[in-house]
What we know:
- The chain has helices at about 1-30, 50-60, 70-80, 85-90, 95-110, 115-125, 130-140, 145-160, 165-180, 185-195; strands spanning about 40-45, 50.
- The two termini are about 40 Å apart.
- It is mostly helical.
- Helix 6 (about 115-125) packs antiparallel against helix 7 (about 130-140) and helix 8 (about 145-160) runs parallel beside helix 10 (about 185-195).
- It is built from ten helices and two strands.
- It has a two-stranded antiparallel sheet with strand order 1-2.
Amino acid sequence: xxxxxLWLFLGVLLIFGVxxxxxxxxxxxxxxxxxxxxxxxxxxxxGSERTLSALVAQANEPTDTVVEPTELRVAVAEESxxxxxxxxxxxxxxxxxxxxxxxxxxxxxxxPDPNDLYELGVSRLYHGDVDQALALLRSxxxxxxxxxxxxxxIGWDILTKHKGQPHRGLAYVHECLRSDVTDGNAWQDAxxxxxxxxxxxxx
Length: 203
């Protein structure tokens, strides 16, 4: 019995090893994306257009403006120590909290901060402008706290889901894991891209 279990374990291990080698091979053989075009025109929330290079330069400029998140966002995301806020959230209930957070997220998609490359990128993706979203998210520097999140959005949401190019997406989900293994759905999105690169039906 022990011998059979050991052989079964070794067989499973071998299968995972082969699949991992295939995924790495697919990622290494995938043609890299062309460099981002700094002259690409990006549609702004007000309907005007600006070049990507102008947006990147503006995003890198120091600013005194501080965007305060809503009290609900602070309390949920950071587990605020304020007993009043916690009591309000408890009174609202989980369903209502989630509904309000979805509404706030949808509002951010409609009216992103024009100085925030990540928000603009996610907004353009929300509106179906995949190439603009890709250019914006690829322009986010590693020093940005949402760099890892941007990488997995590129790998899963854009290259795999929208463009059907999971082999190209591998490098981005791997970069996300390298940068921050605890970022939101990092492992879930990586697994989706891995599965898609192997031809599995992943959603």
